[in-house]
Please model this.
Amino acid sequence: MNASDPALSREGEVQSKIRKVRTFGRAARTLSAALFAFGLVGTVGVLLSIVFGPVFGSGSGLGLPGFENVTTAQLTTPALKAWAFVGVSLMTGFSLAAVHQLYRLFGNLAAAAIYTPENVRRVRYVGLLTLLSAVAGIVIPVGTAALVASGFLDASVPFSSEFVFTAQSLSTLISAGLILLASWIMDVGLYEKDHADELRRDADLVI
Model:
């Protein structure tokens, strides 16, 4: 067997995996674009419904921590509208920003730019945005309780104003921690790879 055969076989295996990564990147980028568009349209619709009132029936749910039982039709005062607007903007803003980062990350993978500093940054941004989303999920119910107690918000609206550290809150925090850990591991691995490449170049120059 030719001594170069293992190297050629290894190169073919690497190229096959890169093609699979590129195929995955293209599919994931398309899905991310669809999710971003759907989320953006839905967010704009909810925000318009908050400001101008629901167009149909009793209004839609807000999907916010502390607002689980509140619909847009129940937001009848400027204070309620303002607080709901801030809450929806924060939660959906973090989510849409994270999806956008994933879209850019998958775009890089589709272009075969796999192990790069930019990808490390994008994974880190997703982790930070997930963490901010988890913090907002804690702050909004606590803030709602404080605003109801101060009389700024109508107490008759069925807020879930008592903060409960739910399994969802915990899972979001854990997810954020794991994503940030993954970005740190990627950063260390990329540094070691660059350092090894530099040492190899120096050795080649000496030879």
Q: What stands out?
A: The radius of gyration is 24 Å. The chain has one domain: 5-206. Helices lie at 5-52, 78-110, 117-149, 167-206. The chain has a mean pLDDT of 82.
